[in-house]
Design a protein that fits this description.
Mean pLDDT: 76
Number of helices: 8
Strand order of the largest sheet: 2-1-3-4-5
Shape: globular
Length: about 140
């Protein structure tokens, strides 16, 4: 479940998982088409948006610039899920408005390294982390 800090989550990822996974989460909306991102943001008014970087690709820059310019989206936190860290790309996305990065390799590491997991857990509960990892596999 989602922590009380963020009640509404918009997940922008590929549509490769069964629909029964969405039935348990009432506060998560999944979008798999880039053309329906902004209508979904307007309809849901999410607290956090999680983008799958490999799914969105080059369109992420246009989407982030549009979010940054519009005052309607000021309070929306943006997370980006990536397979690996890339300093050049990550710094560019940070300038465009990404608040947090979530790396697949950091999620599959030993639980001894808790600094990355603690940062991510402050945003979204562990059940959503498992869900996002399953979505992108």
């Amino acid at each position: 479940m989602i922590r009380t800090r963020f009640k509404k989550v918009l997940l922008v990822a590929p549509d490769i998982f069964p629909n029964q996974l969405l039935a348990d989460y009432t506060h998560v909306k999944h979008v798999s088409a880039t053309s329906s991102i902004f209508p979904s943001i307007y309809e849901l008014t999410p607290d956090v948006i999680v983008f799958d970087y490999e799914f969105i690709g080059k369109d992420l820059e246009k989407i982030l610039r549009r979010i940054q310019v519009n005052k309607f989206y000021n309070k929306v936190k943006i997370c980006c899920f990536k397979n690996t860290a890339n300093e050049k790309t990550d710094s560019f996305l940070k300038v465009l408005g990404v608040d947090h990065f979530i790396y697949r390799e950091a999620l599959t590491e030993n639980p001894k390294n808790k600094s990355v997991l603690n940062t991510f857990n402050s945003i979204i509960d562990a059940s959503i982390v498992k869900w996002v990892v399953n979505v992108t596999q």
